[in-house]
Amino acid sequence: MVERHHAEDPLARLRERTPVLGMLREAGAEDRPFEGATIGVSSHLEPKTGIFIETLRDAGAEVLCTPNDPGSVHGDVVSHLDAQSGITAFAAPEMSEADLDRAHRDLLDREPDLLATDGAELLAKCHADPELSTESVVGCAEQTTSGVSRARAMADDGVLAVPVFAVNHTPMKHWFDNVHGTGESALTNVMLSTNTVLAGRTVVVAGYGYVGRGVATKARALGADTVVTEVDSRKAIRAHMDGHRVMPMDEAAEIGELFVTATGNCHVIRERHVRKMNDGAMLCNVGHRDIEVAIGELADAATDVRDVEEGITRYSLADGRTIDLLAEGKMVNLTGPYSQGHPAAVMDTTFAAMVLALRELVETDGLDAGVHPLPERLDEDVARLKLDALGVEIDSLTDLQQRYLDAWQRDEIV
Ligand SMILES: NC(=O)c1ccc[n+]([C@@H]2O[C@H](COP(=O)([O-])OP(=O)(O)OC[C@H]3O[C@@H](n4cnc5c(N)ncnc54)[C@H](O)[C@@H]3O)[C@@H](O)[C@H]2O)c1
Prior knowledge:
By secondary structure, the chain is of the alpha/beta class. The chain has two domains: 12-169 and 343-390, Rossmann fold, CATH 3.40.50.1480; 180-335, Rossmann fold, CATH 3.40.50. Helices cover 43% and strands 17% of the residues. It has 17 helices and 15 strands. The chain has helices at 12-15, 19-31, 47-58, 75-82, 97-109, 121-128, 145-156, 171-194, 210-221, 233-241, 249-255, 271-274, 295-301, 332-335, 344-363, 376-390, 399-406, and strands at 38-43, 62-67, 87-89, 114-117, 139-142, 163-166, 202-206, 225-229, 245-246, 258-261, 282-285, 302-309, 312-317, 322-326, 370-373. The longest helix is centred in the middle third of the chain and has 24 residues, at 171-194. The radius of gyration is 22 Å and the shape is globular. The protein starts with 11 loop residues before the first helix and ends in an 8-residue tail after the last helix. Bound molecules: nicotinamide-adenine-dinucleotide (NAD). Nicotinamide-adenine-dinucleotide is lined by residues 144-146, 178, 182, 206-212, 229-232, 235, 262-265, 268, 286-288, 331, 333-334. Nicotinamide-adenine-dinucleotide (NAD) is lined by residues 144-146, 178, 182, 206-212, 229-232, 235, 262-265, 268, 286-288, 331, 333-334.
């Protein structure tokens, strides 16, 4: 019989599955780009983030970490990190929103040099609160769509005082993390927590951006009948051409069995939609905040609200129908009962891009305050390292091909 050992190190297993971060960790331990710098990390404190934090620490940083969502804190990961030198966790499982706010302030009071955020909460807070300051902050790397749009809104308002790298807006992030990572991890969580088969079910996906496209594509691959709702005509056409039915939420509400919101917006599913839904319809969200389903309106419409299973809140309506809300409307892949966030192979590249963005911030002089694209060469570095880790080789352009592509009088070349 195989003897099983309880892992004392909750990150050990996933370290093997994050080879790109492993390579950056080795390189960082040698050239110590963050020596003397303090980095404030606000993210889902789960194992992959733990490996990211260790990578920064091994590259010389003092790392302060805090959750961006109280629902996604893994207690064993926090204890493991907090016990290490060079890492301080401002976190605990079961934090209230007030605890989270306090933790963010305590972290910012330590005047970090760099911020690494998922949702831009630390960034917004040090700009908005008169008791806090942005003075120490050299720059910020932001890894999700909602955080980048928030940073852009700060720039548009003329308040953004530091440079921010939009790590989310790179091909390596969009194509892999948002599409595959969220798509697979969200549906896995829905199926496990509700014991539901998706084949043959009507799945309505609100928002056909990177995340929504991933969710809809994966749901259809599992045999679901997929419906997409959108507000952007080009995304709607894209969904149509990809083979999904496209319609307004008012119509989709009548036929959906599972609803997944992926818009980064608010109040996408409202009371008027719920009134039309089938008995037993399930609602969940993968967008950044728990405001895509108008939960207050749902509660007002219900005669009874109770948790029927871990991660499932049942709203009973006056006419006898019930509607199930999963993971309290928070990101179902990160806060549901079986949630492990994105697979390690996906976060490997996202966090690698975050490490390179932070390195770029300390190594580049004179970056203006504002939201900047991550330089393409860094995104390509991440892709190259990932291919190396996978053992996949690709072709390269010949001199002739490069000259042909660079020329406008191409007949002279070939
Ligand atoms: N759960 C996760 O692990 C995870 C991972 C990555 C991103 N996210 C979050 O998911 C959300 C979406 O990210 P994305 O990269 O797909 O963004 P995106 O901007 O590419 O897509 C959002 C789409 O929603 C559409 N939309 C906006 N309001 C709508 C409405 N009322 N009805 C229907 N459609 C609407 C937009 O037109 C857009 O096409 C963001 O909040 C992002 O932060 C979550």
